[in-house]
Task: structure prediction
Amino acid sequence: MTIKQASLSTHRLAIGYPRRTIARDISFSVNVGEAIAILGPNGCGKTTLFRTLLSLSPAISGEVQLNGKSIHHMRANTIARHIAYIPQINGSTFDFSVIEVVEMARLTNIAWHASPSKHDTERAMEALDKVGMADFSHRRFGELSGGERQLTMIARSLASDATIILMDEPTASLDFGNQLRVRDTINTLKTQDISVLFTTHHPDEALQCATRTIAIDKHGRAHLGETKTLLTTEFVAELYGVSVGDLVRANFNVVRNVMKDVVNDGAASF
Amino acid sequence: MSTIQNTRLIYTVAVVSAFATGAVSLAIGQFPISMSDFFSLTRAAIVGGVADVPVNADIVLFDIRLPRMLAAFSVGAALAAAGATYQNLFRNPLVSPDILGVSSGAALGAVVGIFLGLPLLIIQLSAFAGGIAAVALIYTIARAIDRHSAHNNVLTLVLIGVVVASLLSAGVALTKYLADPYQQLPAITYWLMGSFASVSYKELVVALPLIAAGLLPLFLLRWRINILSLGDDEARALGLNVTATRLIVILAATLMTASAVALCGVIGWVGLIIPHAVRLLVGAEFSRLLPLSIIIGGTFMLLVDTICRSIAVVEIPPGVVTALIGAPIFISIMASTFRQK
Result:
């Protein structure tokens, strides 16, 4: 089965709430198999941008287009066929098993009165296998560690037919090893022609995974560019309101210079 | 997998206990029916013929105990199913089926009916209408508030539910205050405590189809109700039409609860503890949770009613017994859940 790559773009998009615009002038289009990082200080609208891209919140002005059509009046079912969403880790109130969580991604293929078929379960198992979680299929989701939950959620987005995945802070609250595991997975997804948009608090992470970065500053202005050219030490210092000296002490320059080469080589190491 | 075998075992035990409780409930009561009389009556009813039993035993068995048994089972099943639904819908394991004001609305409907001296069937219809109207009012107010916000929030529904339910309770209190203390007030108090004593086939033929009508959409949407329990954003991002699905689910659960309350008054605890306990047995997955909640909820209610009408010379209100059993079970479930975490 060949999956048609979806196209997602925004044109002069402004996001926020009815009486408060958080960020404006966001224009980009997602290329096949690229990762885009979304950076910015707390409250700059990273999550709101995702909600707007998914049509969960209306755009204040401008437009989000999916496959050339405005997303505004699109049905949730249509959007979900192309875009998968991984929200920030939250303790789900009810405990489903891992396989039950992943099967939920098959919703767009399941009739309103039906439950997942054998084929849906197989697709869910394949997705778990891809992220190395096949052995966990019958474990309770609530008993998993943060990293295992995040990998399960990535498997869930793979089990759908979506070719664009939005990940809201995929590595927040993960230990160092799990952060690496999730970053590896993002890099692997790129090689399989899946596009990933992710938000992060770490410029390092953008340098490691993302070809391009959208940075939203505290005035709500969006800056888009190649990650390695956009994220200069001066720019990052300005973005987070810290001094260049602070960044040097935090080893940002070291990471930046090493990572330049890694990103230039693409995902060759995976 | 062992989980599947476990589930099968749990189902088998539940169904066997349901039938056993049903048989015991038919056989036990103030009018003594011996085991042999019970079997010959049952055989006579099924294969035909005349049973050699004491006078009136057949009337007690088939016209009094059987409809009462059916009523107790279906009310318990309906309340447990509605409770399971609302607990998933509101992502809160401590929610009962009257979270959206069904009981308060039904109580006001019934109490006003008693106050006006209406016949029993009209009082029941008035209770039913009151329950549905309360939920409709709460839903409409919550939607009107949410229309102007970016979010469409279950929290709004719950909070408006609390406010409106409290308002309706004030209406009940006022009616009680105005009611005639010798005739109406005892009737009101009796109704509010809930009872299966006056149930006959006449009421059952109305209530059972309504309960079944509420159950059908819940059964069809059983898998999607899992997705509703993830919360609005996640459910919508997975492709679910959240607003429409939630409205259908609320309508269905309300129909079941209102029918149950209209039939026998307000009986608490069943809709709260049964789904909670069943979730511990088979997990949160609604396709497994719903049928088992129905079987165990029905059996539990039947058991409680059988105890209520046979343990003492006078009948004990079933709501008292569900509270006596429910409260300790609830506390021990909570204690064991918190200990695990």
Observations:
- Chain B has a mean pLDDT of 89.
- Chain B is about 80% helix and 0% strand.
